[in-house]
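Appendix B: a complete holo record

For completeness, this appendix reproduces one full record from the ligand-bound portion of the collection. The bound molecule is 2-acetamido-2-deoxy-beta-D-glucopyranose. The inputs are the chain sequence and the ligand SMILES; the output is the full three-dimensional arrangement of the complex, encoded as structure tokens. No fields have been trimmed.
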Amino acid sequence: MFSTPFVLTFSLLLSVPILFLLAPHFLLPPRPLRQVLISPSDELDDLALFDRASGSSLSFSHLSTGSNPKLKIAFLFLTNSDLHFAPLWERFFKGNSNLYNIYVHADPAVNVTRPKGVFKDRFIPAKRTYRASPTLISATRRLLATAILDDPANTFFAVVSQYCIPLHSFRYVYHSLFTSSSFDLSRTESDPDLSRLGVRAKYKSFIEILSKSRSLWKRYMARGRFSLMPEVPFEQFRVGSQFFVLARRHAMVVVKDRTLWRKFRSPCYREDECYPEEHYFPTLLSMSDPNGCTHYTLTRVNWTGTVNGHPYTYRPTEVSSELIYQLRVSNYSESYLFARKFSPDCLRPLMGLADTVIFRD
Ligand SMILES: *[C@@H]1O[C@H](CO)[C@@H](O)[C@H](O)[C@H]1NC(C)=O
Ligand SMILES: *[C@@H]1O[C@H](CO)[C@@H](O)[C@H](O)[C@H]1NC(C)=O
Ligand SMILES: *[C@@H]1O[C@H](CO)[C@@H](O)[C@H](O)[C@H]1NC(C)=O
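The structure of the chain with 2-acetamido-2-deoxy-beta-D-glucopyranose bound, as generated:
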């Protein structure tokens, strides 16, 4: 038999390596890989803006016939470089001046050329943005809040980037969102019907909301194991594309939110799964109004052969009428309305297709 002192010494000795093995897991918090913290003064600026937008009760009832206000689409351009496709968008918007508004959030650290024409004076006060950080959530919320305050007629809010192109004419986009009863293939009998005036009683938001994704758990844990608790249990966590088209009441939900923002603004521990803007919006809207969202996006993207979280980027030689037709095909709606990503030098071939293909529908 072993003597008691021997057992004691032995177990003490044994516990040393065990402590070492376990130590990093419960003694030291993991070190964030990327510390993009939003400064308190930036946070206060945003809060003031979001508070003003939240208090804005102005919005047109789209069923009112009295003054017959024109409902508009707010296009929210989120960019950290020049708007390469400004001439294409210019042609897209031409002749529809009372049906849209444009807002541009350009990273102030980059010397972005401000295009004339429809983009003139449409740049909003912006702050720095960094990939894989909550700064992209803030920038999007700034765009939404500014657009809500700017014009009560803004009814849909479409986020696009400098790499996005339109796949149809403005008229087609407008009709699809506001009046078509067949555009949304996921629409069911129980959805609000078209009124006799031909407008939908309650618009849906076109935002991708995914609950089955290979890396869902890793993304949930990206800010630390229990960092989203108790507000967001794993079962309620969702992911999806940051390129969405929100109905006004959902844009309001986003600018009014304080609770989830406090969680999702935390820096990530895992850089490879850190795309806060792809987590925050789908989770927030899925938690607040799942039936008011289509759960799919209207912006086509090609994830085949993805590298470092970047989708495929089309080159000028690939731009053709066949590509445009191919990119329109969707499983969820009659057509995709936008597509990304295109390299800046695609502008020429795209302009060549503008009138004969892209805007002919
Ligand atoms: C930004 O670009 C303009 C025009 O190209 C140039 O005149 C200006 O000096 C640039 N500013 C900075 C800070 O690079
Ligand atoms: C998607 O990208 C791949 C290359 O990664 C390309 O071969 C394919 O043609 C693209 N698909 C479409 C629909 O453009
Ligand atoms: C549509 O669904 C089919 C079958 O799931 C899939 O193979 C195809 O890639 C989808 N198309 C698009 C454009 O997502």
